[in-house]
């Protein structure tokens, strides 16, 4: 049973540059949200939920103009990915995996497919 179909794209140089800009903006948002979670835990010993970070997106976009090029759905999916990474980490820890590590900061290639 085939659930997905992959298409090879051949973007122009201008389109490649735009894809890199979007990738950089997504990575920047991921790292900002991760930093916020880590700082809040370090200072207050409280965790931040996906919902709170989603509701704070307008303020985050205001402070970081490079993220402003992303649509709100894209930003929400980046925050969901971070939240899923944390849930995976806590699930592994709960099941006794001592080698599990919390999510880390990502490089600019994290949200970009390498074969383009």
Number of strands: 0
The biggest beta sheet is recorded as: none
Structural class comes to mainly alpha
Strand content: under 5%
Helicity level: 55-70%
Distance between the termini: 27 Å
- Rg is 16 Å
- In N-to-C order, the SSE pattern is HHHH
Uncertain parts:
none
SS field, number of helical segments: 4
Average pLDDT value?
Answer: 90
- What's the shape? globular
Characterize the structure shown.
This protein is mainly α and 116 residues long. The chain has a domain of 80 residues. Helix 1 packs across helix 4. The mean pLDDT is 90.
Outline the secondary-structure elements.
Layout: H1 13-44, H2 50-55, H3 57-63, H4 72-94
Helix pairs in contact: 1-4
What would a concise description of this structure say?
This protein has helices at residues 13-44, 50-55, 57-63, 72-94. With 116 residues, the protein is mainly α.
Q: What keyword list fits this structure?
A:
single chain; mainly alpha; 0% strand
């Amino acid at each position: 049973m085939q659930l997905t179909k992959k298409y090879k794209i051949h973007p122009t140089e201008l389109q490649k540059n735009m894809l890199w800009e979007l990738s950089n903006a997504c990575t920047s948002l991921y790292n900002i949200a991760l930093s916020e979670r880590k700082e809040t835990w370090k200072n207050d010993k409280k965790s931040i939920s996906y919902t709170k970070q989603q509701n704070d997106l307008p303020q985050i976009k205001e402070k970081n103009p490079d993220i402003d090029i992303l649509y709100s759905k894209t930003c929400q999916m980046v925050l969901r990915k971070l939240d899923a990474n944390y849930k995976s980490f806590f699930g592994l820890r709960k099941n006794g995996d001592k080698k599990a590590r919390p999510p880390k900061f990502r490089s600019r290639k994290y949200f970009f497919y390498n074969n383009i």
